[in-house]
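Supplementary Note 2. Why include the ligand at all?

Several targets in our set were suspected to adopt different conformations when bound, so apo predictions alone were not considered sufficient. For every target with a known small-molecule partner we therefore ran a joint prediction. The input for flavin-adenine dinucleotide is given below.
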Amino acid sequence: MTPTLAATRNESTALRDLLDGEVVMPSDPAWDEARLAWNLAADQRPAAVVFVESVDDVVAVVDYARENGLRVTAQGTGHFANSLDSLADTILVKTVRMRGVEIDPDARTARAEAGVPWEEVSLAAAEHGLAALAGSSPDVGVVGYTLGGGLGWLARRYGLAANSVVAVELVTADGRLVRTDRHNEPELFWAVRGGGGSFGLVTAIEFALYPVSEVYAGILFFPFERAKEILSAWREWVESTSDEVTSAGRLLQFPPFSEVPEQLRRQSFVIVEAAFISDEEVGAALLQPLRELGPVMDTFAMIPVEDLRHLHMDPPGPVPGVGDGMTLVDLTPEAVDALLAVAGPGSGSPLVSVELRQLGGAVAQESPADGAVGAIDAGFALFAVGMAADAELVELVEARVDALKAALGPWTAARGYFNFADSPEEGEGFYPPDTYRGLQWMKAAYDPGELFRASHPIRPARRSEVV
Ligand SMILES: Cc1cc2nc3c(=O)[nH]c(=O)nc-3n(C[C@H](O)[C@H](O)[C@H](O)COP(=O)(O)OP(=O)(O)OC[C@H]3O[C@@H](n4cnc5c(N)ncnc54)[C@H](O)[C@@H]3O)c2cc1C
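The joint prediction is reproduced in token form.
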């Protein structure tokens, strides 16, 4: 029989008695709210939801799950909830109440507890003239993002966020609190930096900050109909940019939501977004070839680095989204044509956003000190998404995303990017074979019984394969 927490009221009471945090069961009035993820399209049906408040709570839930034949999955925000498989027999541990942030300006490091969204770190670091390797969205979780790699606006200069991590504190399947770093259980430290949440429940993470306080950044908006010309020009332009520049080319069809500024609502554009770690003079000179194309709107200016959290115009709160990503070896003129045939002007595309992020620079450079995701070996990372408020829209958007991926098939890179793969894929496709084998050994060493469910799971090596 499948173990279930709700089998008797006594069992859920027993778990409640172990915790300072809150346990919400399917029979509780708060259930439907408790099981919501940031991505409202995800219909999460775990055995129970636990809002942990401390490391002790995390240890108690992990021990309880192990002793009662249940599994555990951790969620900071639920931005990636569509990538999870079934949560039957699983306790969904929400870390949203663990919100401590500490900045050490002398060491140039930050420590964030498991439930901290990027905005809270970026603002705290900025008070000291420092920047974190945050992603595009203010409310994406520091932990989930970093465990999967972490590609932000400073990436081409400083690399993936996972490789700026200096320590990870996590509770392992045997209920131990481990602080892993390059000296303490270094193989685990390697695995968690890019291997996702398969190895334990992270309670806090510590990472490097960088001395950047201002950047030259903004967006050039062009009419959607100019998509081919602008994406082609952007593609050519990125060849000439230094690692101080990280940019994206994007098709954007603003939804009719009240959160979208009125002048943009229902409007479609092809846009170029970029951040230059430079002063205005240098940035403006580099941008000039794109400016000469005559944008209808140009927002480039010197901005405080923490304001990069708004550059990408990500939704300000939970939305129902369906999307997926892929990586491309290159964006040739033929690839631009293939992309636009499915998602460009006149295609009837229901996709709100199709973005292409420029990789290369430090994102392409591996170092022996890196974790499991050292570099992304591709020219561009693509993410396409549509709003999916009902089953019909889900089907429509999924079909278009699939068609887009198929159309770009000839340019697909060997491995996808973990954080942009927003569907329940196994971990295997994101790593070179040797790396995946190493991760499997770590899974066998730390969680052979697969207590932890995670996005893009790593499966344990069989006993006979473990040396
Ligand atoms: C609007 C938006 C913008 C984005 N922008 C970027 C971007 O700029 N760059 C980029 O690289 N990615 C980006 N992403 C992808 C994002 O990095 C992933 O969705 C990431 O997993 C989100 O982390 P989270 O903690 O917010 O999500 P969650 O859904 O809460 O967590 C994702 C997964 O991380 C693991 N996890 C989370 N917390 C823990 C924990 N405490 N212990 C162990 N495992 C844990 C679990 O496996 C979980 O399923 C974006 C996504 C969205 C929706």
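The chain has a mean pLDDT of 95. Residues 74-81, 84, 95, 114, 135-137, 140-141, 143-145, 147-152, 196-197, 201-202, 314, 419, 454-455 surround flavin-adenine dinucleotide (CB under 6 Å). Comparable summaries for the other entries are listed in the accompanying table.
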